[in-house]
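Researcher: Here's a chain I'd like modeled. Treat it as a single chain, no partners, no ligands.
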Amino acid sequence: MPECGTRRQGTRAFAVAMLLGALGAHPAAAAIKDPAAVAIKDPAAAAIKDKDVESYGACLRQIGEDAQKALRTGEAWRGQGGGAPALHCVALALAALGQHTEAAVKLESLADNLANERSELVPDVLAQAAQSWARASRPERAMKALDRALLQKPNDADLLLDRAVLRIDPAGREPAGAPAKQGAAKSAAKPAPAKTTPGAPAGAKDKTAPAQPTTGPSIDPTRLAAALDDLDRALAASPTRDDALTLRATIRRKLARQAEARADADKAVALNPRNADAWLERGILRHLEGDEEGAGQDWRQALAADPDSAAARSAAANLAQLRPTQQ
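Model: Modeled as a single isolated chain. Structure tokens:
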């Protein structure tokens, strides 16, 4: 489900940086971040017998070092009765190797196996399955996994955010202004074409009107509305999620609810000044308000907050299009 700017504030077990980057290059569809850092926070960890904790942690750490070797380790452990933790390690190794369909199938199998004895672990495992389905270009399977997870945890902010991202762009991209997920592959944003004066020759730049910033592709309003509902619920459960506020600001802007979008963006940058995506989004909003100087300031903040991010690249493209006095 984002790739997250900021991402994933909870300690939930998504070692796999979740879904989608909806709307443009979203933080969403990401790869596994450092498995060692989350080994014992992982959904399967709670189902491990004490004697297997070391084996499970070692298997997950191995994914970051040699995923193919970790896959062999996990499969051998399964053959020796490793149970849920061994199956989980195998699934994450497959995801790290880019075998996302196989990973998703095994994660859903793990969720089924846990349903009777450890049902509280099922939503997190399904969230990981959804991320793998998204990476496998199977958004309908990803949505089913998230819907199933939300039946059990209807007010979980992470799950709701993941589903919002998936609704916005089933292809796993992200919008300009959307929050980035950790570990997500990010593509450089292309500058928007310069505006031209009506009647001017093709390619002639309008020297009186500022160029428009990179704002992401248009989105089906129905999908935007459904995603907005998910984000409203996520923020009702967790009001200080700057990543959810940033994405809601982007969606509200696209729905022409600019005052509400600006309030979300203002709150996001106040909560987390290191959120490059929030600065990017607020810069877009300020530019639309006619405040080129303020937009330039925010885009420079995005560059300073996370210079290597997709948000920074979009901000740099937008800065290049401002009038020289505002760059």
